[in-house]
Fold this sequence. Notes:
Radius of gyration of chain B: 12 Å
Mean pLDDT of chain A: 86
Strand content of chain B: under 5%
Distance between the termini of chain A: 41 Å
Oligomer: heterodimer
Shape of chain B: globular
Low-confidence stretches of chain A: none
Number of helices of chain B: 4
Largest sheet of chain B: none
Low-confidence stretches of chain B: none
Number of helices of chain A: 10
Mean pLDDT of chain B: 88
Helix content of chain B: 55-70%
Strand order of the largest sheet of chain A: 18-17-16-15-21-20-19-22
Order of helices and strands of chain B: HHHH
Shape of chain A: globular
Structural class of chain A: alpha+beta
Strand content of chain A: 15-25%
Largest sheet of chain A: 8 strands, mixed
Largest interface: A-B, 26 and 21 residues
Number of strands of chain A: 22
Amino acid sequence: MIAELQVFRFLTPIARFLFGYRIEGGGNLPARGPFIILYAEYSLLCNLYNAFQTAALLSKKIAKDKVLIFLAEELFTLPYFHSKHLRSFLDVFPLLPQGAGKYNFNLMTALEHLNRDGMIILNPEGDMSRDGRPLPIQGGAAWLGLHGAVPMVPIVPTAETYDAWPPWQFWPNTRGRAIVRIGKPFRVTEKPLDRVRDEDMQKAVAKIRAEMSALRFGPGGVAAWTGPPTKQGDVLSGPLPLPLSPDIPPRPMLHRSSIPAWRQGIPLLLWRCPICHMNDSLSQRRRPFKAKTVSCSACGTVWTVTRIPGHDFRLQVIKGPQALFGLNLSLSGWYDEMKKDFRLGPAIEAGKEYLPREEMHLQTTGVKLLLDKSNSLRKSWAGREAPDREFPARAGDWLRLGPGKLTLTSLRLIWDSPQGCLDFWWPRVKTVHLRSFYLLSIGYGVTPYRFLFHHESGLKWLTCAGGLVRQNHPHIKISPY
Amino acid sequence: MTAREQTMTFEGFRRFVSDILGIAEEALTPRTHLVHDLAVDSLKLVELMVQLEKVLDKKIPSDVAWEILTMGDIYQYYLRHAEKKDDR
Lengths: 481, 88
């Protein structure tokens, strides 16, 4: 065993004690390459489990140089990757950044690796789901599978893993069983394709989706995991009567919560009330020996939060409008209600003038700007527009600036700090991506920038940017929300 | 010798690229940058490079692939390596 991997010998029994960690279907893993391991991320526990599995793989018969792991490029910005001591540990894992721009060409390296009987480990969704439901499958895994015609092995933690440690919660729940299933190998084509066309991609993506969902959710699929809406115990079949109070004037989106984002819990996901659609009005409360509650400061609705292992969380209205009393939906169901009818409206900042026909939509303070150390802004900060033609020399070599004030307008994103002011004009933005709830990444031309939020949910920013992109800038590739 | 094995003219090369990217040939001038000007899907760019590898019978390093994203640069790269292929 590689010496640095010994640490997992200690961590694995802890996970076994707390969450009943074990692996089912170990016999499905091929003894040698080429093959592709498909993993999923929808819980903070998934990250730990993925490291366990990789360590187990590397520590067995498989030579280190036979494995290549794709890891979301944003993760290379974590301090973990920059600690001298951890770095030596990390070098055990042969990592490739997965992301936009130049990083996409790593797929060529991966294809070569498969042709030399290597193994690739990647997340075909490319991101962590925020509400526990699967995200769309990206093209990379399908493309490799079609060119290589190699077996794909899904390794998916079971549905309980989400409620054991949902991404919006800082600490894990320590009850419950969260095991890992290794599925039967499958292929998206029997023979390597000489040329991959759109229709091949669509079929391959659908196949990967079906295999991964079946392994995680079983025959009932996602619908069985979320469960139907109920009221006073009766299943509701018609449309829900929401939102209830659309006449409440919207709160300007300039709010700053006094609670750090990492402590907010469910309001990271439900950043506006699903009943009255007021922004930033929900707060979560923990009560000793009682169920958690979530309440809205605008319409007065209170929900209890129930965890059902193996299913989505359930939120039931216990106080509020009479017509909704007893209404019980999955958390992802409330999230859908929250997004329903979302329209990006103008906000007003006193004493600030923007360009003609420019509308301000959203603003917050305490946002750090992360830029690559090779970015020319480090040497000279000339002009207000951010450089857009520079790609990082290496992944994860980032500099933090600020904090500053971030403003989203109809024409640009503005980051304003004592160090300077930068504009990111929407027509030159290529990608908008949210990693966890705190790190909003944008590809400005080919240059990546990150905004790190401290006080509020990055999901709110992603949703607002999404509204703008849908209306005016369809060329921008944006994370699902 | 097939048409593809003969060195392509810029017009022929443009047809080859247009077919892979699904973009009208007229949009592909020597100065067109596939990312900045056409926002070509990144997976399509990878497919283009893989197809170019097949035509040239040569591996294109990912760093190089990222540096040659104007039509003119890709064509020059193609010409340089197609000639070397002929010499072989």
